[in-house]
Amino acid sequence: MIDGTTELAIGVHFANNIGGILLFNITGSAVTTPALFTISEYHATYGALSVLVAIPVFLAIAYGVFKQESPQSVSQSHQKGRW
Questions:
Q1: Is 70 helix (H, G, I), strand (E, B) or coil?
Q2: What pLDDT tens digit does each residue of the chain (83 aa) get?
Q3: Rounded distance, CA 30 to CA 43, Å?
Q4: Radius of gyration from C-alpha coordinates of the chain
Q5: How wide is the angle at C-alpha 4 spanned by C-alphas 22 and 2, nearest 5°?
Q6: SS3 category, 37
């Protein structure tokens, strides 16, 4: 977990599910909802490649947003005799 809590993971999971349901629908799927795009034929290779691209992009964005400074660089004033 990048931010040390499960909130980010739950939020991403929710956004992925809602986005998948509202944007894309696969013909013959278990969840039939009116969606913006309908996929008539699913290719597992393209699905796997899109995940391999989307996950590193998300992790880079999340790491940039939730990156915390290391404790050493935040407080060095506790060391006596060093200016």
A1: coil
A2: 556 778 878 888 898 888 888 888 888 878 778 889 888 888 889 889 988 998 899 888 878 877 765 455 444 555 555 55
A3: 17
A4: 21
A5: 60
A6: strand
Torsion angle defined by CA atoms of residues 75, 77, 79 and 82, in that order, rounded to the nearest 10 degrees:
130
- Give the amino acid at 3: D
In this structure, the chain runs to a length of: 83
Max distance between CA atoms of the chain, in angstroms, equals 72
Are the beta carbons of 30 and 17 closer than 8 angstroms?
A: no
Amino acid at 11: G
> Please, how many CA atoms are within 13 Å of residue 36, restricted to the half-sphere of its CB?
6
Report the chain's terminal Cα–Cα distance, integer Å: 36
Please enumerate in sequence order all residues whose Cβ is within 8 A of that of 27, keeping only pairs 6 or more positions apart, or say none.
38, 39, 40, 41
Helical pair 44-66 and 7-23, crossing angle rounded to 10 deg: 140
Output the pTM of the full model: 0.50
